[in-house]
Design goal:
alpha/beta, 8-stranded mixed sheet, 12 strands, 34% helix, globular
Length: 341
C-alpha cells in the first residue's frame, strides 16, 4: 500500500475548498532492471558540473505577446491549461506560436501519478459550460489545431468522456476546419466511455503510456500498462481512419531493452504517432531522476521508431505530448498517403 506523505487543505481561486495529496516516492518500490542492478538516482538539488542539468537542456523563460494574450484569454474564460498545471518547459514557445493544450474537467486529479505536477485530491463540481468556453477560446486564438486533455475523474460514471465529446463538438461548431486532438485518461478501460469520445470524431486520439511496465507501481500506481495499450487499440478499431498517438518519458530508471519493447508494444497496438521526452522532476515530492538522455540518444530512438513503422516520431529532451502537435498530425497524414517529404 502507498503511504500518504501529507494531506493539505487548499482553497482555489473561486473559493472552492479541496485537499491535495502527495506521496513519498520511496513508498512505491519497483523491481530492479532486468540486469538486476539497483537504479541510482540523482539528488533533487544537483551539483553544477557533476550531475547538473546539461547545457543543451534549456527552455526560454515564457514571455512575449502571444504568451501574454493566451494567458489573458485563459484567465478571462476561467479555463485551465496543462501547459501551466504540469509546468511544461515549452510553454513560452508554444503559446507564442498560438498553440495551447486545454485541460478540461477542472484542475484537481483523482489519481496520484508520481511524475505529475497537477494537484491530486477531491475534484471540483463538473462544469457543463466548459466545452463552450473552450470553443470560444479556440475561436479567439485563431487555432487550426486544438488539443484537449483532462485530469482523471474516476469518480464520474464515464470518467468525463461525455465532456470530452461535448468539447469536440463545440469546437467543430464554433471553428469549422479546426483539427481536434484529445489526450484522454484511460477511463478505467471502459469501452463505452472510449466509444463516446471516438463517436465525436477527434482527428487524433492520444493516450500516453508514460513509462515502461516495470515502473508502473511508482509512476502510475492507479493505472495498468496492458489496459492503456488496450485503450489505444480499441480507439483505432472504432475509427481506423483516425490517428492514434501515445508517448512516454525516459530518465526514470528504465533501461534500453525496456524502452525498445515499449515502442514495439505501442506499434503492435497500431499507434501512429509516438512522442518520447526527458522526465524532469517537478519537486522533491515527485519521483527522482535516474539520468539525462543525450540528444544523440533521442535521435536514435526517433530513427528506430520510424523503422518500426510509426507514421511520426517526436523524440527529444524537451518533447512533451502536445509539442508540435499540429506538425505531428500533418506529417502522419502525409506518411499514410505516401507523400512524406
Amino acid at each position: 500500500m502507498v503511504r500518504r506523505r501529507k494531506i493539505e487543505l487548499k482553497v482555489l481561486d473561486d473559493g472552492t475548498k479541496t485537499f491535495t495529496v502527495r506521496h513519498r516516492w520511496e513508498d512505491r518500490p519497483v523491481a530492479p532492471p532486468p540486469d538486476g542492478r539497483p537504479t541510482e538516482y540523482l539528488p533533487f538539488r544537483q551539483e553544477r558540473g557533476r550531475h547538473g542539468r546539461p547545457e543543451w537542456l534549456k527552455a526560454r523563460v515564457p514571455d512575449g505577446p502571444g504568451y501574454r494574450e493566451i494567458k489573458e484569454t485563459m484567465r478571462g474564460l476561467s479555463l485551465h491549461t496543462v501547459c501551466e498545471e504540469a509546468r511544461c518547459p515549452n510553454i513560452g514557445e508554444c503559446w507564442n506560436n498560438r498553440t495551447a493544450t486545454f485541460m478540461i474537467l477542472g484542475n484537481i486529479c483523482t489519481r496520484s501519478c508520481g511524475f505529475c505536477a497537477v494537484l491530486t485530491g477531491k475534484p471540483q463540481e463538473l462544469d457543463l459550460e466548459e466545452p463552450y468556453r473552450v470553443a470560444d477560446a479556440v475561436k479567439k486564438m485563431g487555432l487550426r489545431h486544438a488539443v484537449i486533455t483532462s485530469v482523471n475523474r474516476d469518480e464520474l460514471p464515464d470518467g468525463g468522456a461525455s465532456v470530452f465529446a461535448a468539447t469536440i463538438r463545440a469546437i467543430r461548431a464554433e471553428v469549422p476546419g479546426c483539427a481536434v486532438e484529445v489526450l484522454t485518461p484511460d477511463f478505467k478501460g471502459d469501452r463505452a466511455a472510449i466509444r463516446t469520445v471516438i463517436e465525436a470524431r477527434p482527428d487524433t486520439f492520444n493516450h500516453n503510456i508514460e513509462t515502461v511496465p516495470r515502473l508502473y507501481p511508482a509512476v502510475r500506481p492507479q493505472a495498468k500498462y496492458a489496459r492503456s495499450l488496450e485503450v489505444l487499440r480499441y480507439a483505432k478499431e472504432l475509427n481506423p481512419e483516425g490517428l492514434t498517438k501515445s508517448g512516454f518519458m525516459v530518465g526514470l530508471g528504465e533501461v534500453e531493452e525496456e524502452i525498445v519493447q515499449t515502442m514495439r508494444d505501442l506499434r503492435e497496438h497500431e499507434v501512429d504517432i509516438l512522442t518520447i521526452g526527458q522526465y524532469l522532476r517537478p519537486t522533491e515530492n515527485h519521483l527522482p531522476m535516474a539520468r539525462y538522455y543525450t540528444p544523440e540518444e533521442f535521435a536514435r530512438y526517433r530513427r528506430l521508431g520510424f523503422e518500426m513503422g510509426f507514421r511520426h516520431v517526436e523524440s527529444g529532451p524537451l518533447v512533451r505530448s502536445s509539442y508540435h502537435a499540429h506538425e505531428q498530425t500533418e506529417d502522419a497524414r502525409r506518411a499514410s498517403s505516401g507523400t512524406r517529404a
